[in-house]
Design brief:
The complex is a heterodimer of chains A (309) and B (260).
Chain A (H helix, E strand, L loop, with lengths): L4 E10 L2 E7 L2 E2 L4 E5 L6 H8 L7 E6 L2 E2 L11 E4 L11 H10 L7 H9 L15 H13 L5 E5 L7 H18 L2 E6 L2 H7 L2 E6 L2 E7 H7 L2 E7 L2 H10 L5 E2 L5 E3 L2 H5 L1 H10 L4 E8 L2 H8 L10
Parallel strand pairs in A: 4-9, 4-10, 7-8, 8-9
Antiparallel strand pairs in A: 1-2, 1-3, 1-5, 5-6, 10-11, 12-14, 12-15, 13-14
Chain B lengths: L1 H16 L2 H24 L1 H6 L16 H33 L4 H4 L5 H34 L6 H21 L2 H8 L4 H20 L9 H6 L9 H24 L5
Helix pairs in contact in B: 1-6, 2-4, 2-6, 4-6, 4-7, 4-8, 4-9, 6-7, 7-11, 8-9, 8-11
The chains are: A alpha/beta (309), B mainly alpha (260).
């Protein structure tokens, strides 16, 4: 399998602080890999190591089958990136900033600048100085610089930062299109879980420098907690009826019955029929599914918020 | 070569779009005007006193409204102001990438770091030479307007060569400031070092060791009487300081962690 990104036991230590440790990642070609973590978890340090900006204390990283080395020219011709806040030369216009980026990628056609300006919705701002752009448009300019030279691999650190909801949808569709139609691989560091769950095929969860878990979106579906919540006028009678039918239920403090039986979760209509037949019809039936945010918080050992139906 | 041309284009575009060329040019214009003002006073001391430009107690001994004297102090001024303004140019060209957060866009690109750095140094040299040319031309013009005496072709030729060599010595002297801007990730460290070197340069010159302190050598070279104190080692030390600056900057850009 072709692996645009592969790290083996990668780690970085700053003095006594371990920013990243024992990081072994494998990102497959054409996939969107989301690298999830809280602020300070080690996401940006990892991206900087992948880009050869900082030297790993331990381990190695390969990007597009090239061993990453500090200060090397390889393999950056085919890599686009956005690291942290997308700074630009404030006194240059949007067009000039992109022209600078184009000249830093020899072989990129001059027309690529106008093309990417149009694609990123920056046409109205092409002659505006970068210093006068809104945060959202500055982010678009940063993404335009990353995409300008049609890279095979994109390393994006919080790409949705500063974008409005329409902009987020637009960027999501753009990334999906790039992966589907051009086979571009995307490595996306983010703490915006809702965004990641809509976009990524594979997710890596990093916490305090360690990779806690790597999973496919399908695995996430399987692993995340689900429960069926029931309310009835006679809660004890309902619990007994369910227990008799082989569905053990737990009574919660708020006067709700909780079932975690897989059949009950997949067929709540059967449970409703059963209770109606037992003479204790439910007044409320709710299947709750843990979302990515709660799954993530549970995994990193923090208390989550509310689950949703 | 194509990469270098592109990198030079980038650096020139960044420089010409900023206000720094204007500010540095204004700095040198102030120097030129200050010297012309001094020459005016030497040329017309009674008039200067009568219109209140100088006090009645002003001591004008030691100076003369002549081209040789004018070009001599112009060289000294170029050495001192050049160290300050050229190091400012160097600090801005390199330090701005950290101060503005744009450095990361230069790191993972298919262009050699050496090429990017060479382009920056070339633009600093060009910029410094243009500032020098402007200072010399404006000073010559003001000297002519004031009507200084003893302006023979030999004096102009000698003065111009002295100014050009002094400028080159200062330009080489400020190469290490690219390193200080890189290590200090911005402008503060190189500007602080510049001020420190100006102070040390004066102390060392008073102590009689100025000819072996690279940052005092341009001023000594520019002075007609002090040039005799310089020997081959003085120029070699300037060259070594410059080369150390180039090498240090390259090694820092190539091998230091860039986490900002």
């Amino acid at each position: 399998m072709n692996l645009p990104i592969e790290t083996v036991d990668l780690g970085k230590q700053y003095g006594k602080v371990t920013a990243v440790k024992h990081l072994s990642l494998r990102v497959a070609e054409g996939e969107i890999y989301a690298f999830l973590g809280l602020n300070g978890a080690g996401k940006t340090t990892t991206i900087r190591m992948l880009l050869g900006m900082i030297k790993p204390t331990w381990g190695t990283a390969q990007v597009l089958n090239t061993r990453v080395r500090l200060g090397s020219q390889e393999p950056w011709a085919a890599v686009g990136y956005l690291v942290e806040i997308p700074h630009s030369y404030q006194e240059l216009t949007v067009f000039e900033n992109l022209e600078v980026a184009r000249r830093l990628h020899p072989g990129t056609a001059p027309e690529a600048v106008s093309r990417i300006i149009e694609r990123m919705g920056l046409s109205a701002y092409a002659d505006r100085r970068a210093g006068t752009l809104s945060q959202g448009n500055a982010q678009r300019l940063g993404l335009a610089k990353a995409l300008l030279h049609a890279p095979r691999l994109l390393l994006l650190d919080e790409p949705a930062n500063g974008l409005d909801p329409a902009g987020i949808v637009e960027i999501r569709e753009l990334l999906l299109e790039l992966t589907r139609e051009q086979g571009v691989t995307v490595f996306l560091a983010s703490h915006i879980l809702a965004e990641v769950s809509r976009l990524a095929q594979r997710i890596g969860i990093i916490h305090q420098g360690y990779l806690l878990q790597e999973l496919d979106v399908d695995e996430l579906e399987r692993d995340r907690h689900r429960r069926l919540l029931l309310r009835a006028r006679d809660l004890e009678a309902a619990r007994l009826a369910l227990a008799t039918a082989g569905y053990p239920a737990k009574t919660l403090q708020d006067g709700t019955l909780e079932l975690t039986d897989l059949h009950a979760l997949e067929h709540p209509d059967d449970i409703t029929s059963l209770l109606v037949a037992a003479g204790v019809p439910p007044t409320q039936v709710l299947v709750e599914e843990e979302d990515l945010e709660q799954y993530f918080l549970r995994l990193v050992g923090m208390k989550g918020g509310q689950t949703h139906a | 070569m194509r990469d270098l041309m592109n990198a030079v284009w980038i650096e020139l575009r960044k420089a010409t779009r900023s206000r720094m060329p204007l500010f540095t040019a204004l700095g040198f214009l102030v120097v030129a005007c200050g010297l012309a003002f001094l020459m005016f006073i030497y040329k017309y001391p009674s008039l200067a006193r009568s219109i209140g430009l100088i006090s009645a107690k002003a001591n004008l001994a030691g100076g003369a409204a002549t081209w040789p004297y004018y070009l001599g102090i112009l060289g000294q001024a170029l050495a001192a102001a050049g160290l300050l303004l050229f190091s400012l140019v160097e600090s801005w060209v390199f330090g701005r990438e950290w101060a503005d957060g744009t450095l990361k866009d230069l790191l993972a690109v298919p262009v050699a770091r050496a090429t990017l750095l060479l382009a920056k140094f070339l633009v600093v040299v060009l910029w410094s030479l243009l500032l020098t040319a402007m200072l010399v031309l404006v000073s010559f013009l003001l000297g002519a307007v004031i009507g200084l005496s003893q302006g023979t072709p030999e004096v102009f030729w000698h003065g111009t060569v002295t100014l050009a060599v002094a400028a080159c010595l200062v330009i080489v002297d400020v190469f290490p400031f690219a390193f200080f801007a890189s290590v200090g990730r911005g402008y503060l460290l190189p500007i602080g070092v510049t001020l420190l070197l100006l102070v040390i340069g004066n102390v060392v010159a008073i102590a009689g060791w100025g000819s072996y302190f690279p940052w005092a050598v341009p001023a000594l070279y520019a002075g007609f009487t002090s040039r005799g104190n310089l020997d081959a080692a003085s120029y070699l030390l300037v060259l070594l300081a410059g080369l150390a600056g180039l090498a240090g900057t390259y090694l820092w850009w190539k091998y230091a962690d860039q986490s900002h």
